[in-house]
Amino acid sequence: MLLSFSIAASWMLIATAVVVRKSSRQEFAFVFLLSNFINTNVYYWSSQTLHIFEISKNPASFVSFSLLQSAIVPLFVAVTANGSALVRTVPRKVAVHVASIAFLIGLEGLSRYLRIVIYNEVYVFYWLAGYRTLLYILPLIALRFFRRMCIHART
To answer: Could you tell me which residues are beta bridge partners of residue 118?
Structure first.
């Protein structure tokens, strides 16, 4: 069931990415690849090198973890980063970003509940929640600089 949930969530985000994509393909690919690179490498680094938490050894859980890290979270960040351009007012943009961060933290809680990521200390959850928040904000900032760089390259 865990594996089927991960695969279904991946396909739903892929379909949403195709429908919602407001910005250019380059911007979408930039946000997706940047968040995928950061998410995959920092998470494995935190687990394997720093031993902050443990990744499940169960094959179905590990495949779900891989889908979560390399597809679901980066696609969600890319879709919301590009979909936030559809929202015009500042309060609604703030609401979209807060809801997106809450969703990412909820995914972190769900992965702990489903025993995909194993840890016992409460501070680890707070550390991972802060990491997810930073993972959401960093590609947004990098996207602004990427757009600025593309504009200057055309002139």
So the answer is: 54
